[in-house]
Design brief:
The complex is a heterotrimer of chains A (about 425), B (about 250) and C (about 240). With about 425 residues, chain A is an alpha/beta fold. Chain A has helices at about 1-15, 60-70, 95-100, 120-125, 130-140, 150-160, 170-180, 210-225, 240-250, 255-260, 270-280, 290-295, 335-345, 345-355, 360, 370-375, 380-390, and strands spanning about 115-120, 145-150, 165-170, 185-200, 230, 265, 285-290, 305-310, 315-320, 365-370. Chain A folds into three domains: about 1-100, no CATH class; about 115-190 and about 315-400, Periplasmic binding protein-like II (D-Maltodextrin-Binding Protein, domain 2, 3-Layer(aba) Sandwich), CATH 3.40.190; about 195-315, D-Maltodextrin-Binding Protein, domain 2. Chain A is elongated. Chain A starts with a helix and ends in a 28-residue tail after the last helix. In chain B, helix 2 (about 20-55) packs parallel to helix 5 (about 100-125), helix 8 (about 155-170) packs antiparallel against helix 11 and helix 10 runs antiparallel to helix 11. The mean pLDDT of chain B is about 90. Chain C has nine helices and ten strands. In chain C, the strands form two sheets. Chain C has a six-stranded mixed beta sheet with strand order 6-7-8-3-9-10, with helices on both faces. Chain C has a four-stranded antiparallel beta sheet with strand order 2-1-4-5, with helices on one face. The N and C termini of chain C lie far apart (about 40 Å). Classes of the chains: A alpha/beta (about 425), B mainly alpha (about 250), C alpha/beta (about 240). Chains in contact: A-B, B-C. At the A-B interface, helix 6 and helix 11 of A face helix 10 of B.
């Protein structure tokens, strides 16, 4: 280690402190390495690869990160793709040299810009988006990020019209359509949790602990006898899609129960209003964990979780950027979208998701995806996610056809080429 | 933008003439809810307006001012308040009004009360003093005098009530929060517009909005037509009178 | 039993202005009394007080020796306003109003009303909108409306002031035909010849005070009051 540090400090002393702010052609003046420009995305043109932590300067902080990942390769515990400055799948001397050459570099703050994320009511109501906003804007102060809150279906429509720059939703089927129809690129899974079926505390339908599909069948049977009520969101949201899939999987004709029965009620609204209705009428409903916990905590509802945490109830959150090559979407803020996506997947972003909810609810609301897939800590959950949310199933988060200028987003060991 | 409107108009016509039973049911529910709510409101609003308009007492100006300012109460705020009262933890929970059409009716009847009271009491108060004198000198008691004044200002009352109906017909906050927008049960025109907007189905949302305005327009024009027929010396009316042998 | 109306020390102020000052008046028997005076003298106010439409500030009004309050006066007296007021209804409805209040039914009064209208030359006017008739027609309707009630005291505030000679004549004739022997009639006017024609007694009121009370002969030929003499000669302000 010591010889390396000495080499480093020797190199630093040779640096022209007035090295100009550079864009991506930093290959000039560096002898031993070739920067693979295909991995330095256009949207990062306000800084240089040596600025590992993206704070607009090459400084001690970047050196520390490099030092920590030094000598690693993909698959190692301390592998850090961002520290692999010359993109040769190793963090080694050439990367150190490059950093030394540009040490002290300071970039200028890009001009102020807005990022609009079209997201779902489920996420919005947890409050996590406020936390994301604060953290992201602290790190990148020239970006103002706003979150729109709608049902997944509407969220996707908003992005399709170009009224949002990216989507953050939880419906793999609709996400797939978004990609296939050419509206989105660079899909990434950020976190997961589980839907739950909640109901009145006395559980009149007696479904506590049953498997989800069996529980739904029982609700239908008892509903027809007038002993149980089901409340649906009916708003094209991710939760609603999940619900419809479950009914289908249970072999029940959803259209029929929706229009021809009185035990199935549809509110056409978000999770909280739907929970309130279920609470008042003593009915059952499918909810996301966060909304349930929030509303229980503030005393709006007095319901219990009757069915939880099984494969059928998996809930996976993903992000997709608007496709800048789409004729309708040329004006969207691709650069900021990608930056936010990369942020969410970074250690800082994933930690934010990992910790969110612990202080308010006593338990985290999200299981961040990156640690799961990089360390294989929970193989069962991972296989469920890959089965349910990979496109195609079990293959990849995002087929390469729908990747664009993704930088090192898919350069991880677990990403198929 | 014009495309959206044209599409919306087309969609509106489609919805109306397709015989879509859900559309008709929604229109019916809106009419029922606000119609019933308006009738209810008249039950107490007209008497209150009479007292406020025709009798003087201390603090009258203050009460008139309060009613006047309550006209603009945000429907969401009122909806929330009603929800708290009607929820099963609330004082009126035992009535099970939440998520029912009658619940919305009651909510709307409260919403439009200030409107009816304010406008009607103003109209009554502004009634020609001479009419009061006329009634009195013809032997009317105070009570009968007030009745006569009310009869003279009927048209103003009709206008006030129809304005109140329009306010209730187009409000969203109470219908959504108290009604719950339950499909086939409490989904009305305004909550449908909100829902379709949230779903991004803009042409359907606009279509519902057009239908709503069309209903309001029809009702308003009908009322105006009735009044016009009552008042005007239309040619056919003149003939009728002459036929009766009238003439100087 | 003759009807007897007495006003004793009646006063009335509007704000700080004293409009009637110490009015003393007595009318015995079914007489027609003309109340003469220039504009602003207090004629209308006096009529309104007798009609029970205003409360007097001081003094008393006695009918047949009994003290009467405004409310009671309203039932006994009917005032026909100077500027006609019609309910926004049909002629029939206007005419029927007072009778219906007193409990009569439509069927009972149809004939009466038709007859009254005939008397003032407005046959078959029942169904017309009252407010859509001409000024002269409205005045006649107002008169019929009062006649129908047969009030003990009939008060008329300048009934022909705004009418053309034709209508004025009809009205005056109707009044004279109708009112003979049917209770007290007090008619306010500033038309001297009308007073001469119509009245049994003439009262001159000036600045809220009664200047002269006399029969027409004495009043116009030999008034006692200086003011009255000036009034007759047209020397007082209008």
């Amino acid at each position: 280690m010591l010889p390396l540090l000495l080499t480093f400090f020797y190199q630093i002393s040779n640096v022209n402190a007035n090295a100009p702010a550079i864009s991506k052609d930093i290959s000039t003046g560096i002898s031993n390495s070739v920067v693979s420009q295909s991995n330095w995305p256009d949207w990062l043109n306000w800084t240089i690869p040596a600025d590992i932590n993206l704070d607009l300067k090459v400084s001690l902080a970047d050196l520390v990160i490099l030092a920590h990942a030094y000598g690693s390769k993909p698959g190692d515990v301390n592998w850090n793709a961002a520290a692999d400055i010359n993109n040769d799948t190793r963090v080694d001397l050439p990367d150190l040299v490059t950093m030394a050459q540009s040490y002290g570099w300071a970039g200028s703050t890009p001009s102020a810009t807005k990022l609009i994320v079209s997201s779902t009511t489920s996420l919005y109501e947890t409050g996590v988006e406020d936390t994301m906003k604060t953290a992201f804007q602290t790190k990148f102060p020239w970006i103002t990020i706003s979150f729109l809150s709608q049902g997944t279906g509407a969220a996707i429509q908003t992005a399709m019209r170009g009224d949002a720059d990216m989507i953050m939703v939880h419906d793999p089927t609709q996400e797939n359509t978004f990609l296939v129809k050419g509206y989105g690129v660079n899909r990434k899974i950020i976190a997961s949790n589980f839907f739950i079926i909640v109901g009145p505390q006395n559980d009149p339908a007696n479904i506590t602990g049953m498997a989800p599909l069996d529980a739904l069948k029982q609700i239908k049977t008892l509903g027809e006898q007038g002993k149980a009520i089901w409340i649906s969101r009916g708003d094209g949201s991710g939760t609603n899609s999940k619900e419809k899939n479950l009914w289908a999987a249970a072999g029940i004709n959803w259209t029929q129960i929706r229009t021809e029965t009185s035990w199935y009620k549809e509110t056409g609204q978000g999770m909280t209003p739907t929970l309130l209705v279920a609470n008042q009428l003593g009915g059952y409903t499918l909810s996301d964990t966060a909304s349930y916990l929030t509303n229980t905590k503030n005393g709006n509802i007095q319901m219990t979780i009757v069915v939880q945490a099984t494969k059928d109830l998996l809930n996976v959150y993903s992000v997709i950027a608007d496709n800048p090559l789409n004729a309708n979407l040329t004006k969207t803020n691709f650069a900021a979208s990608m930056l936010f996506i990369q942020y969410l997947l970074s250690d800082e972003g994933q930690n934010l998701l990992a910790n969110y909810g612990t202080s308010t609810f006593g338990a985290p609301l999200f299981a961040p995806f990156v640690p799961l897939v990089s360390t294989g800590s929970n193989a069962t959950l991972l296989s469920w996610i890959q089965n349910y949310a990979y496109i195609p199933s079990n293959v990849t988060e995002c087929p390469s056809t729908y990747r664009y200028d993704a930088g090192s987003l898919y350069a991880n060991s677990w990403d198929p080429p | 933008m014009q495309d959206v409107i044209v599409q919306a108009l087309q969609k509106a016509l489609e919805l109306i003439f397709s015989g879509n039973s859900e559309v008709y049911a929604t229109v019916y529910r809106s009419l029922y809810v606000t119609g019933f709510g308006t009738l209810l409101s008249c039950l107490w609003s007209i008497p209150i307006a009479t007292v406020l308009g025709l009798y003087s007492f201390r603090g009258r100006w203050l009460i008139k001012g309060i009613f006047s300012s309550l006209i603009g109460v945000p429907t969401v705020a009122l909806g929330l308040l009603l929800y708290l009262f009607m929820s099963h933890q609330g004082e009126f929970g035992f009535l099970h009004l939440l998520y029912t059409l009658n619940g919305i009716s009651i909510g709307q009847s409260i919403l439009i009360t200030p409107l009816i009271v304010s406008f009607t009491s103003s109209a009554l108060g502004a009634a020609d003093v001479q009419l009061k004198d006329l009634a009195k000198t013809l032997g009317a008691s105070n009570f009968r005098t007030n009745l006569a004044i009310m009869r003279e200002t009927v048209w103003s009352m009709v206008l006030a009530v129809s304005a109140a109906f329009n306010r209730g017909f187009g409000e969203l906050g109470i219908a959504m929060i108290v009604g719950g927008n339950l499909f086939q049960e409490t989904r009305v025109l305004t909550t449908s517009i909100a829902l379709e907007t949230n779903l991004g189905e803009f042409d359907v949302a606009m279509a519902y909005a057009i239908i709503l305005m069309a209903v309001v327009l029809t009702i308003t024009l009908a009322i105006n037509l009735v009044e016009r027929l009552r008042q005007e010396d239309l040619p056919w009316k003149k003939w009728w009178v002459l036929r009766q042998g009238g003439g100087d | 039993m003759e009807v007897r109306l007495q006003l004793k020390n009646v006063e009335k102020s509007y704000g700080s202005v004293k409009v009637l000052k110490d009015i003393n008046l007595e009318i015995v028997g079914a007489k027609t009394v003309a109340l003469l005076g220039i504009n602003g003298a207090g004629k209308t106010t006096l009529l309104r007080i007798i009609a029970g439409l205003e409360e007097r500030d001081k003094g008393s009004i006695l009918l047949d020796g009994k003290d009467t309050n405004a409310k009671e006066l309203r039932q006994i007296a009917t005032l026909v306003f100077q500027k006609t007021v019609m309910f926004n209804r049909s002629v029939f409805s206007n005419l029927a109003y007072g009778l219906k209040i007193r409990g009569k039914k439509d069927s009972e009064i149809k004939e009466e009303i038709a007859r009254e209208l005939h008397v003032v030359g407005l046959r078959n006017f029942e169904k017309r909108k009252a407010r859509k008739t001409s000024g002269g027609e409205q005045q006649r309707i107002a008169l019929s409306r009062a006649f129908l009630l047969n009030p003990q005291i009939l008060l008329l505030d300048e009934p022909t002031a705004n009418l053309d000679p034709y209508n004025a004549t009809i009205i005056e004739r109707a009044i004279m035909n109708r009112t003979k022997g049917k209770g007290i009639v007090i008619l306010a006017t500033h038309n001297l010849s009308q007073a001469k024609r119509v009245a049994d007694d003439v009262v001159h009121i000036y600045e809220g005070k009664i200047m002269e009370i006399a029969d027409p002969e004495e009043f116009f030929n030999n008034p006692r009051s200086e003011m009255t003499r000036k009034f007759i000669n047209g020397e007082l302000d209008y």
